[in-house]
């Protein structure tokens, strides 16, 4: 049975790092717009209908963006424990890139999307894990990952091939993946 753990990071910090300055400004603007509309309705302030409708449409557009933006997907653990994760790695039949991320890490959010695209571009399985919940927390302790993002490239036997502990350009990660994948395929062919 999988358990979920709450992050110790405050919600405003998660929102700020996940969505950035522009989104926070748009959110504050939307809240102020709603307050202005409420004030206008309560005090019978003369407010043109077009201004009220445009403010409501802008707020609705912001809410739609907030809910359906593709880069806002949560990091979901694929397995409930480290043992189940290693079983999934062994059954993958291809190398696995594990991305250990944090809720408040701006680099994790930015690079996470680009690294996750490698799954489609390379013969690779990408697993994104949060270091605040299991099995990411245990895996981070096992590999002594103290910074985020940390990327672990493993073969299908669960052996660590490469570890990156800094925010590298995705092209460098792609180069190392191709190098290790070619070596791994050559060893398995013999």
UniProtKB/TrEMBL annotation:
Keyword match Hydrolase: no
Alphabetical list of Pfam families matching this protein: Thioredoxin
Keyword terms: Membrane, Transmembrane, Transmembrane helix
Residue ranges occupied by any Thioredoxin domain in the UniProt entry: 86-158
InterPro entries: Thioredoxin-like_sf, Thioredoxin_domain
Parts of the chain that traverse the membrane: 21-41, 47-66
Protein name (record): Thioredoxin domain-containing protein
Organism name: Candidatus Thermofonsia Clade 1 bacterium
């Amino acid at each position: 049975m999988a358990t979920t753990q709450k992050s110790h990071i405050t919600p405003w910090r998660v929102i700020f790092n996940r969505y950035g300055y522009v989104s926070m400004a748009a959110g504050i603007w939307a809240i102020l717009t709603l307050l202005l509309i409420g004030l206008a309705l309560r005090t019978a302030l003369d407010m043109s209908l077009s201004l009220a409708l445009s403010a409501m449409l802008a707020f609705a557009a912001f809410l739609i963006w907030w809910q359906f933006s593709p880069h806002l997907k949560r990091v979901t653990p694929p397995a409930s424990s480290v043992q189940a994760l290693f079983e999934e790695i062994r059954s993958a039949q291809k190398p696995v890139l594990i991305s250990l991320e944090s809720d408040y890490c701006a680099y994790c959010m930015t690079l996470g999307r680009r690294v996750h695209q490698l799954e489609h571009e390379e013969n690779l399985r990408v697993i994104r894990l949060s270091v605040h919940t299991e099995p990411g927390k245990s895996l981070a302790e096992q590999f002594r990952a103290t910074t985020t993002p940390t990327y672990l490239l493993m073969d299908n036997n669960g052996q660590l091939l490469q570890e990156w502990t800094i925010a590298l350009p995705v092209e460098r990660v792609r180069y190392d993946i191709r190098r290790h994948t070619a070596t791994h395929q050559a060893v398995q062919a013999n």
